[in-house]
Amino acid sequence: MINEDEKTEEKEEIKESISFWAQIKEDFNVPKLNDPALDSTVELFFNYPGVWAIINHRITSKLYCKGWKRTARILGGLASILTKTDIHPAATIGRRVFIDHAIGVVIGATTIIEDDVLIYQGVTLGGVSLDKGKRHPTIKSNAVIGSGAKVLGNITIGKNSKVGANSVVVCDVPKNSTAVGVPAKIIKKDSKNCKLAHNDLPDINKEMFKYLIERIHVLETAIKEEDGIDVSQKDKKLEEDYNKFINAMNSIKK
Fold this sequence. Notes:
Layout: H1 4-34, H2 42-46, H3 49-65, H4 69-83, E1 86-87, E2 92-93, E3 98-99, E4 106-107, E5 112-113, E6 118-119, E7 124-126, E8 138-139, E9 144-145, E10 150-152, E11 156-157, E12 162-163, E13 168-169, E14 177-180, E15 185-189, H5 204-227, H6 232-253
Parallel strand pairs: 1-4, 2-5, 3-6, 4-7, 5-8, 6-9, 7-10, 8-11, 9-12, 10-13, 12-14
Antiparallel strand pairs: 14-15
């Protein structure tokens, strides 16, 4: 006869199995919520390497946690060849995480990604130390990591926060914030829970160039007035070049 303890264990295994397959099913449904380009279910099998990368991670993570580390690493390596995405089996990934396009994404061993996180192609969630222990980022729920962004070290990207494309983040980002730049700076804090619109981010390099040009203009004007220097012809030419530069910057913003 089966005793009560064995019955309990069997129930837990069944529950775990159901939970696991339910999660796989959920992973297949995530692109429908995040990608308007999806036209049919068939596309999930051929055009969404990020979905397969996540599903493979579910399997390798389970094996890794059960002590089958070598097997998990081998399967993870094979999957990275097929999906062009490198996710360590020891990484923790929550529910409804979507890796859009996926190519070039790297997720380190001690990374923690909570629920409903959106990650674009070329993202690195990496470490900056060879020490044991937590050395990779924690990405809180509903965060968005823009394409090409590098989030490095044992830092936290807060809930509902966004990281702009190609940014390099080495410090914590508070919840409900937007970070851009190299290194990334916090440029906006709000309570909106919306997906990242890359065209809505300010160009901080453009703003800095604009400030420097205008500052130089002020200094030159002061010097000319003080010393009575006539450089009107050159000044007119520089003014034309300056206006062309500003117009070009503004056209990029549009």
